[in-house]
Each structure stands twice: as C-alpha cells, then as structure tokens.
Fold these 2 entries.
Entry 1:
Amino acid sequence: MKLNWAELLVVNNPSRVFQQKFEIGWMRKHARLAPGGSFLEIGCGRGAGASIIRRQFCPGFLCAMDLDPLMIRRAFHYLRPQELQNISFCAADALNLPYPDGAFDAVFGFGVLHHIPNWQGALAEVGRVLKPYGTYFLEELYPTLYQNFITRHILLHPTQNRFRGQELKKALDAANFLVHASLELNLFGILAVLKKAC
Ligand SMILES: C[S@@+](CC[C@H](N)C(=O)[O-])C[C@H]1O[C@@H](n2cnc3c(N)ncnc32)[C@H](O)[C@@H]1O
C-alpha cells in the first residue's frame, strides 16, 4: 500500500534519517557481513536507508526497490552521484520480487511489512531471494502506533491481518527465519536481525 500525505511527512524528514542511522548501527553490531556482498532493500522509500546501508556495510551492489515509482524517483535524486555507482532501483511489489532465488546475501526492510496486506507472502519472498544462511534485517511497527485512536484517522494502512510481536515471530518461524538478535518495544515495534535457516 502506498503512503498517504501524512506518512510521507513522517518518513521524509531529517529525524527519520537519525533514527535509521541508529537502527542500522545497531544492526551492524549484531551481524558482521563481509564487504562486497549482494544486498536488497525492500520498500526503500526516498533512499535514506540505502545511503546509510551503503556506508555502514559496503555492499558490492545494492538493489533498492519500492512499490511506488514516485519513491524510486525520489531515491534516485536523494542519493549522491558517487553513491549511485553500485545501486540499482526497481519499482516492484515485495509480493513478487523480480529477482532469482538465492540472489542476495542480505535483505533489509524498514517499516514495510505493516503496509502489505499479505505480509506473510512478502516474508516468503524475502526467504526465496536470500541465499542459504543469508541475513534479513527488519524494522517493523505494531498497530498501537499506526492504528490508535488518532493515527487511524490520519495514516493509511491495511486493517486486516495485522501483526504484533507474537504473530510476527510465528510467521518468521514458519518462513524459516531464526532470530539472531532483536530489540523490541512490546507495544510499539521491533528491530531484528534474522538468519535464513537452511
Ligand atoms: C513507511 S515507508 C518506509 C520507507 C523507508 N523504508 C523508510 O524507512 O523511511 C514504507 C514503504 O514501503 C513501500 N511499500 C508499501 N507496500 C509495498 C510493497 N507491497 N512492495 C514494496 N514496497 C512497498 C511504500 O511505498 C513506502 O515507500
């Protein structure tokens, strides 16, 4: 589901960049990936995460994809020319990723799954495109934040098939991911580093 005007304000502002710097720093501490790997970011938005991932992890190449072509255009303009050398962009649906099986060493997704009605299907796709023992870096929010009595009138999200920690962990387990490290604020959301278990 694409973002409405209110959530565009929430994610396209400088405080989000600081938050992602903190989160990606935490992720790096918990998963030391060899430089030069093949990375994917699903739901890349305006590209701030891709820029930080590139600096912190030094991938060989990074594919940044988003459902919304407008976001892809923003990301292209957000990144500096030297950053664009090993980044490719793609407008596509996380439910049908246009990449072969086992293509990536690592997949990142910041605040994306809770925008997808069939988020379990997107988890299966992440598992498909990851190499065996590949790493999935995840940041997710729970409905307490985006569907409370105020935010449900302002933000636009799917209303059915929602998840909190318990449902998310059960679905990650079913999709064959092992939790390597996690940082959860019970009612609000989770940061996690997961390994594909096979
Ligand atoms: C809350 S924004 C987060 C953007 C960015 N990752 C960040 O953290 O600032 C969610 C993003 O996921 C994208 N998105 C929503 N549904 C998607 C889907 N089915 N496939 C790929 N991207 C999707 C939206 O267009 C939006 O850019």
Entry 2:
Amino acid sequence: MSKVSELPKECLWRIEKEENTYAVNAMCQRIQLESDGESEFQPGHGDVLEVTNNGKVICLHAGASSSALIFVTNQCNSNCIMCPDSVKQRTRQNTITIEYLLEYVSLLPTDLTHIDITGGEPTLLKENLPVLIEKALDQAGKAEILMLSNGRSFAVRKYSQLFYPFADRKFKIEIPIHSASGEKHDFIAGCQNSFIQTIAGIHNLLDGGVEIGIRIVVSKLNYTELNSIVDFIHYEFPDIKYINLMGMEVMGNAWKNREMVWEELENLKPYLQGVLVRCFKWGIEPRLYNFPLCLFDQKYWYNYRKSISDYKIRYFEDCEKCREREQCGGFFASTFHHTKYKVRVQ
Ligand code: SF4
C-alpha cells in the first residue's frame, strides 16, 4: 500500500478504482493505494498522474473527461505576434521526450472520443511525430485526433509523406493562414518565408489526402481583410471544407503586442459576419471560436462553437441572467479583463 505522493517517480501512473484503488504503470505494475484524506488531490478513476521528485502530484489527464491533450513541446519554429505564449515559454529548453509521450499515451483510456495534439509546434518532434500519432490512433480507436501545426515543416515533401498513412484514419491537422499577402502573413507569424512554406505544406498534405482545416486568428492586423483571406483559401485549396475563425487570447506575445493586435470585439462583428456569408458562398463551413455568443446575430449561431477550456472561461455579472449562458463560450480570462465589450443578455 502506498500514498499517491509516494508512488515511484520514474514512471507515469493510471488510477484504477474497483473495490480498492490502484495505480498501474505502463509495465502493468499495480500498487494498491491507501486513502490520503489530508491530500488536496483525490485521484479519480482513469486519471493519469505524474509524481514529481518532491512528491507533488500532477494530473496529466482527468479520467472523467472523454477528451485528452497530448502536449508535445513548448518550443516553436515561428514567433507569432499574437501567440498566447511568451518568447520565454517558447524558447525554454524542451524536456519532453518521445519515450515520455508514448508512455503517457499508453495509459490513456481506450474509449476517448477526442485527442488534441498540440505545442508549441508538434512537428519539432520530427520523425517521431507520426510514431506518436500512430500510437494514439491505436490506443483510442474511436477517438478523432486533431493536431495543431503552423504547417511549415510539411513544405518538405518527404516529411509530409510520413503523414499520408493517416489520410483514411480519424486524423486531421488545423493550420493557420494569417493573410492573403505573403508579406503580411510572415509579419504576423514573425518569420520570413513562413507563408511560402505553409502554403507548400498544405498542398503536400492535401496531395496525400490528409484532412486539413484552416484557422484564421482574427486580430487588428487582419480583421478587415477576412474576405480576401477566405477568397485566397477557396482558390488556392478548393478541397478545404472548413475554416475556423478564432478569437485571440490576450496573453504572452499577444499581451506584449496588444496595441498592435487587439481589436475590440464589437468592431470585429461586421467583418466576422461578412466573412461567414463569404464562406457560405464558396461552400466552406465557417466556425466561430473563442467569442461571446451574443456578439453575433442569432442567424449565425449555427456556426458558433463553445470552445474555451472550462478553467479559462469568464462571464460578466450580467451573464448570470442570460438564457444562453450554457451555450455561450464566454471570454478568456485574459480577454475578460481587457475588453470593453458590453454583453447583450439574451
Ligand atoms: S450575455 Fe454573457 S452569457 Fe449571454 S451570450 Fe452574452 S456573453 Fe454569453
């Protein structure tokens, strides 16, 4: 018998609750846990845990959730002007190894419905990335896997071909396009030639049948040109089926550059609603993420997605009276403190 905080530190543990509570590792070693009423953390069935050297318990996956996150690296090969991470976060040495990631995935529940693979930039894992994706697809056969990438690494045709085997699996990649102008895109991505590389990368992946969705992070730098971005996507990539229009999280680089990138939500409204119509015209499904529901006229709510992670969501006091609160994704904590938006209680 052991307390959670006393579990061996050299591996990860999954909690299994039957009549008693056990911790199981990837080698199927099983340790019965004794209750630790004093501890702040009470493990739940299916939780995946890491115990640090000083006995701190980190919950990497909450067993009650049907979706999981695979965080590959804090590092990135771009430096987007509105990135919610800071330069310090993105340039810190990466300590996450492929062995650690595979061990984590092997402990995830097999009945997950969704897995996000994210970073930083996941392709910095190079040839190990397809190995990780294969492992995740095998571990949770029913799960849809979504990977976020800036797409630049896929400009190397040989590298993109490593992902072709996932074309007929439940796997897709979402890649951002910041502008129809290469110069503007590169400025927003903080990296020369990133536009050319991202466009080539998307073509390479589409050639192999990999499902791609496009993301547009809407900022002061591009909100008036959303129609031209969508026109560009339509002509350049006729196979693209959906575009996600993303509200910004005002943290990290976005906070540092807020004068340059932040635009009040109310000013975005006509452009966002206008670009929805443009997407309909081209037969592309638009989706709205990270905005308050009441920003939009009701006829566009079909395209609205509640997307902000629970622990980051904030609502204004008036929202308590709103009939749509359950459907509304509210505000990022950072946006909540920054915006002058006046909610329209429904
Ligand atoms: S009033 Fe608040 S809860 Fe209601 S839609 Fe607007 S932001 Fe959401």
